[in-house]
Amino acid sequence: MKKIKYRIQYSKTDAARFTSHLDVARAISRTLRRAGLPVAFSLGFNPAPRLSFGPPLPLGLESEAEFFDLELTADLAAEAVFQALKETLPPGLKVIKVQRLIGKTSSLMAGIKALSYQFLLQPHAELGQLQVKSLLEQLWTKSELPVMKRTKSGEQVVNIRPLWLDYRLDFEPEGLVFLTIKVEFGPRGTIRPDDFCTFLAQDFQIRRVIRKAAFFEEKVI
Amino acid sequence: MKDQYELLLEKVEKPARYAGGELNTTVKPWAQARLRVALAFPDLYEIGLSHLGLRLLYHRINEVQGYLAERVYAPALDMEEELQKANLPLFSLETRHGLGEFDLVGFTLQYELSYTNILNMMRLAGIPLRREQRGEAHPLIIGGGPGSFNPEPLADFFDLFLLGEGEEAFLEILDRIADGKERGDDRAAIKRALLQIPGVYLPEYYQVDYTPEGRIAAVHPHPPAPSVVQKRIIHDLDQYLPSQELVPWMEPVHDRLMVELFRGCTRGCRFCQAGMVYRPVRERSPAFIKERLTDLIKKTGYEEISLTSLSSADYTKIEELTGALTDCFAPQGVRISLPSLRIDSFSPELAAKFVSGRKGSLTFAPEAGTERLRRVINKNLSDQQIFETLEAAFAGGWQRIKLYFMLGLPTETDEDLAGIVRLAKEALKMGRRIHARAANRVQVSVSVSTFIPKPHTPFQWRAQISSEETLRKQRFLQEELRGKGLKLSWHQVTLSQLEGILARGDRRLALSLEKAVELGCKFDAWSETFRWDLWQEALSFAGLKPEDYTRARSYEEILPWEHLSAGVSKEYLITEDQRAEEGKPTPDCRGRIDCKTCGVCPTLRARPIMAGGEKD
Q1: Which of B42, B133, B406, B487 could be joined to B128 by an S-S link, Cβ 3.0–4.6 Å?
Q2: Is A163 in contact with A183 (CB distance < 8 Å)?
Q3: CA-CA distance, A108 to A55, in Å (whole number)?
């Protein structure tokens, strides 16, 4: 049977942000049934829709850059898939973009090379813009940013600095600061926002964390 | 910015339990509602959400303009701690209002071991526990579900209980309250008006006197309360098939679309409370079930439909229905499943198609180890029937079989325990013979629970076995059921003791319940949180002993629930108890038109309804 692949970008907000990766996957497979899309099913006794997901989002975070790949048995226009999802996704999940994939494409997990996160920060003390800038500059110029990682063989110190690719600051009214960081995603690992927060917690109250974007090897979205 | 509840959610392990926002939930504007109802399940979200009854009521109330229903579940220990630290009340999922702000809080009484959770939830919401401590500003507290057939241990904490099915009666209750509030009636006047609704039980209208030994001397109903409260049923189940169903984010225990084929059960097992209190049998029509399921799958996207009932395979049109549903839903990747099958309705074909868990394991419930004892409990299976079914199951490819039994049934002797051992060992031998090439993968698991006599059953007068006796019986099985391929699991002895105390409890237990909660008892059904030591302290605080409740009663003694009726006559229960003693079976009443044996049909002016028509 013919299988057409689509890549869907969606956002995750509100109550949905408290939903685990696995639970979102189940919710999306139910969405596809409600939408009545001609989904390709896996073989076997318990057929599951052919779906694959991008990097898991830590619980509690919102995101504007979540992805899943979907296979359909009919060649629908991307716009038709977009409309069907728009009407049936559960509250808190919103479709942003649907792309029909042509030719050979890497999977989401292999194709995504970097992610960006945005932190809304409220400085603890009366830190001015210059001081905030210099705090981040100091962090950026460090060669080691050690975090404790729990592994099967106990705790281990890991240096996350090599995985930190870029950052930018945007200053908002009332002393609030948007910090956007870009981090590597791939076989060398990635930086979890929680881990990065350990270096901010001393100077800032972290009001909100959002995954903002995913960067692909070949420009797909 | 985030409200204070959002901050709480970020601190707990499983925030989806409290976040709300599931698909197909209804969030109504709080300020515009005429009447606000909180539907409370006194256990964790993933348990509570699996319960059909509250989901039915939730949608049904929200369908009515002006009425708002929201949900609340027992907070896990981490959330309880965060609520107290933040000094916030237990809140509803939909609009995050404190429970105390609702007009009515309804608790479902599904199992006795959730009673401390009910009081703890009220405490966390800042609602005074005792009825007489509550005033005009507080919500009315109502209970429903099987526990309301003996709610006496909770009588001092609740304003009212509803006996029986809620589809019609609960809305009648809401109408009275809403009208009363709009008229400016006070609490007492509203409650008096509620007395006019059949099925409504207001404990404050019944005064219970005790003898010096702690037996009930008399129950005095105060007019206009009826001397006996009769349960409510709905006659035509097709009228009340739900048209909406919510889909949780987080996986509940039963994560599927559930639909009841029928209510009631005609088998007449003498230990089974559900079999007695949900009579008579009323089946839904297959065409209607299919039509509604088609709509609900479109609205929910569930991948499994469970056809639930007390014994689903007894549904008169079971083959027609499962066939039609499979044809309809298989192409969409939706499975149809039946809960476990009865031994006498098992077929490998049915099981292969419809019992979830596939080639994993199959569960059967012989309940007792010998034919004699099975006749006593009216679960009339011969050893041969059991072995034929097991053989069919093994031959059908299953390698793991689970057998469910009860310990401490009336008239049980060690011979009956030996019967359990014999059945299990024979089953193992048979499995190994049939799966000769994979003999070491064959497993027979025996699960034994302790029999607890329940109100409104023929065994309601019987003694519950003591802790010592239970332990002795468990040890007997532990020693006999050893070796590769055999597995034994059993219930914690003290947990069954508490369940038995509360099941046949009276109003004197209020003091103990209150004390237990004060001492920190909660989630009693979970062995890791259950504290028998604290419960013992709470019982002796009220001057009570387990034996006060686990003891045998005479037919003449006034039972705490005697002013509450499930429609089944006392004469029938006594006859059945005596037939049990004599080891006489009573046939299934399914399809017998003129059967008036148990009294439920004449009493409720009802009749059994069969989708396949009655047979003589």
Answers
A1: B133
A2: yes
A3: 8
**Rounded mean pLDDT of A45-66?**
90
Does B51 map to a domain? yes
pLDDT tens, position by position, B377-394:
999 999 999 999 999 999
Residues 212-251 of B with CB under 8 A from A: 247, 249-251
The verdict on B337 touching A (C-beta cutoff 8 Å) is no
- Residue-level length of chain A: 221
Task: Give B115-161 pLDDT, tens digit per residue.
Answer: 999 999 999 999 999 999 999 999 999 999 999 999 999 999 999 99
CA atoms of B495 and B512, how far apart (whole Å) = 16
Residue numbers in A near B333 (CB within 8 A): 33, 39, 41, 47-49
Q: State the best of A33, A43, A87, A93 to mutate against chain B, taking most chain B CBs within 10 Å.
A: A33
pLDDT of residue A220: 45
For chain B, what is the domain count? 2
Q: Do A30 and B302 touch (CB under 8 A)?
A: yes
From the candidates B7, B23, B256, B329, which should be mutated to test the interface with A, based on the most A CB atoms within 10 A?
Answer: B23
* pLDDT over 70 (residue B72): yes
How far CA B532 is from CA of A177, B494, B526, in Å, comes to 54, 7, 12
- Is B86 touching A (CB cutoff 8 A)? no
Is B294 part of any domain? no
Best CA proximity match to B123, nearest among B85, B174, B89: B89
Q: Note the pLDDT of residue B613.
A: 67
Q: Which domains does chain A have, with CATH numbers?
A: 4-105 (3.30.70.580), 112-216 (3.30.70.3190)
ipTM of the complex: 0.88
Residue B395 per-residue DSSP state: H
